[in-house]
Each structure stands twice: as C-alpha cells, then as structure tokens.
Amino acid sequence: MFCINQYQLDLIKQVDILWVQHSEWTYMSFMGVVFKNSNEKDLINRLLRNPVDFGCFLRRFYGDRVACHFTNLLTEHLQLAISLVRFTMAGATMEAEQINKRLYENADEISLLLATINPYWYYPNWRDMFYLHLDLAKEMAGQMIEGNYRESIETYDKFEAEVMMMADMMAQGILKEFF
Questions:
Q1: Cβ-Cβ contacts under 8 Å for 34 (sequence gap 6 or more)
Q2: Cα separation, 165 vs 151, whole angstroms
C-alpha cells in the first residue's frame, strides 16, 4: 500500500490546479477571441500567467534555469495557440499552417525539456500527451469558430480529462524523484 503525507498530497493538488487552470483559461481565451469578447485581452493575460505559475512551482524542484525555460516554452505554446485561432478565423491558411507546425515543434521542445529534468518523465509519453492536447485544443477552437458550441463543450471535457492525465504524469514523476 502506497501512503502519502500531507506535503505530497498538497503537491498533487498544486499540479492539478496548474493544469486545470491551463485548460480553463485556454478555453475561456479561445471564447474571447472567437466571440470577440470585450474582455479578450484580460482573458489572454490571465492565461499567460499560467506558465509563470508553472515556473514558480517547478523552480522549487529544478531551479531557476529550468523554470525560466519551461515558462518561456509554455508561454510560446499558448501564444501560438491563440495566434492559430486568429489566423484560422481570418482564413489565413498559410499562416495557420506555419503556426500549426511551430506548435508541434514547441510541443517537442517542452517534452524534451521535461524528459531531461526528471528520470521518470519520458519524451515519447510527454510528446504523445502534448500532441493529443494540441489536437483537442484545435478541434475545440474549430468547433467554436464553426458555431458547433455543444460539440466544443464535449471536446472540452476530453481536453480537461487529457490535461488531468498530464497532471498525474507530472505529479507522479516529481513524487518518484523526490520522495
């Protein structure tokens, strides 16, 4: 039987919150962009706080250099996703294709960073999770753009569940390495 102490439980909760906020603010930011909400900039600014929060969390275990690198990569990930939604809405196919290509390269870079800092995190696992994450995010945004709101909510449910798997993978790796 595996027993965890309160500190370990708190760590799991912190990771869960970071990933849930990542999914929630991504969805809300997509809505802000797609529906041209007056609070679009505020939503995106809040979304972009998520990588900083992740960096602060990771700094405790992996130091400043890793925390800053992860923060920069995750910020780029989110900025690219927002740009992809904008270019898709504008019908700018070539630009959208370039952004999409860069999104997957960025996912590779994030996956590689995570795999190099924790012996229990594996590049193929993170890459597969990030690729699925991107696929679901694009599907969700596309459904919003097309006016398929019910479907976008159903896709969000899958997106959120997948993000929680990412949270589990992150938390378990930290627990195995440090506890």
A1: 85, 89, 141, 144, 145
A2: 21
Phi, psi (degrees; rounded to nearest 5) at 72: -65, -45
- Continuous H helices in 91-148: 93-117, 123-145
User: What are the tens digits of pLDDT across the range 124-149?
Assistant: 999 999 999 999 999 999 999 999 99
At 62, give phi and psi (nearest 5°).
Answer: -120, 0
Instruction: Tell me the HSE value of 144 on the side-chain side, using a 13 A CA sphere.
Output: 24
DSSP code, position 128:
H
| DSSP-assigned states of every residue in 45-58 | HHHTHHHHHHHHHH
